[in-house]
Amino acid sequence: xxxxxxxxxxxxxxxxxxxxxxxxxxxxxxxxxxxxxxxxxxxxxxxxxxxxxxxxxxxxxxxxxxxxxxxxxxxxxxxxxxxxxxxxxxxxxxxxxxxxxxxxxxxxxxxxxxxxxxxxxxxxxxxxxxxxxxxxxxxxxxxxxxxxxxxxxxxxxxxxxxxxxxxxxx
Length: 170
Known about the structure:
By secondary structure, the protein is mostly helical. Helix content is 86%, strand content 0%.
């Protein structure tokens, strides 16, 4: 693994785990934008263009959400849906290995949760997406992504408790 991939993986790990532990949805999105950029660079350095491209779509969706550009965010989400549908058809026709679906579907669930959901629905969709990314990270041999995803799932459990506590206090 190159030094650049290791540095970007470390930054992505720290920003991603921290973002998921925060109970505030707005702060989660801000840190998650940084996290997506770092992961995109990490996966590009490892030669994984599919994973990197899904992260660029995520950055557009999250950035559009943060800036109030709903049309751009919706267009990026539709690109995400189209890529996921095309990948499913490609796998069903035997043209692509099923492992190619992992980053695409993982990104779809995470992007949808982060950009369009709040509280428990956000957390639930991100958990589904992170499990798919864990399988993808394992299949391409990214130690940073495997460790980060495991820690992210733990941080999401902490977030879920924090969100639940805040809702109960109201």
